[in-house]
Each structure stands twice: as C-alpha cells, then as structure tokens.
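Thread title: Can someone regenerate the structure for this chain?

I was given the following input by a collaborator and told the matching structure tokens would be attached. They weren't. Posting the sequence so someone can regenerate them.
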Amino acid sequence: MKKLPMIARIVLGLMFFVFGLNGFLNFLPVPPMPAGAAAFAAGLSTGGYFFPFLKGLEVLCGVLLLSGCWVPLALVVLAPIIANIFLFHAFLAPDGMAVPVVIGLLEVYLSFFAEPYSKHIKALFHSCKCQCQHEGHEHGAGEKSEKKSGSCC
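Best answer:
Regenerated them for you:
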C-alpha cells in the first residue's frame, strides 16, 4: 500500500503532462465535440491567452507530480482545473466522463487520503488559532484582537 500514492501521483502527473503538451504540440487527435462544448471552447480560445495559460499550468503541475517536488502545491493548483474539466464534461460533453472521473478520484485520493500529501492539504482547511500575547485571549482567523495593533494571526 505504500506504493499506491506514488502510482496515483505518477498516473495523474502523466495525464496532465501529456494532455498539457498536447495543447501545444497537437500530437493526439481531439475527438469531435457536441455543439455546446465546441461553442464554449471557441469562446475561451478567442482571447488567445486562456488555453496556452491553462495548458502551461497543466504541463508544470504534471512535471511537479512526476518529479515528486511540491506535490501539495500541484494538487492545489490542479483542483479548480479538475473541477472545470469535470463540469465541462458533465454539462457539455457527457460521453467523455470516464477521464474526468478518474482524474477527480486521483486528486481526491492524493489530497485527502494519501500520505504524505494529505496532511498538507488538510492543513489548509484548519482555522487559524493563535495565542495572543496578552490576557491569554485565544481567537480564530478574522476575529480582531483587543490589542491596538490588530489581529494576532
């Protein structure tokens, strides 16, 4: 079981590295899309910056996952990308739901269940608790300290 996080990380990294590179090099054929999906993609591509930025992030995060460096950062950056891939297929191209489900499951596994990455991701969801220097007053993020300097956090 200790190899499962490494396998999941490499599979997810390969998927984003290969599909990200495909956005620049076009070595894999893109299947025809339904009309709504094609219109959505055409709208995003008219600005000229979105797809190169997106595919560049996918390649970068794929490299980070494959190398094992800064994996929690790669997982955080990929989370909204994966959510959009899933929603794109769910609403605009439902025939291709297999790949988004697989990458979603890999992301959730690596982010919340696989050691050593899950502890870093879960830490993002913990509230800020700090001990003030005065009167032992403890407060969470967003609460103001009674000190004149503002919040302790």
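The longest helix spans residues 4-25.
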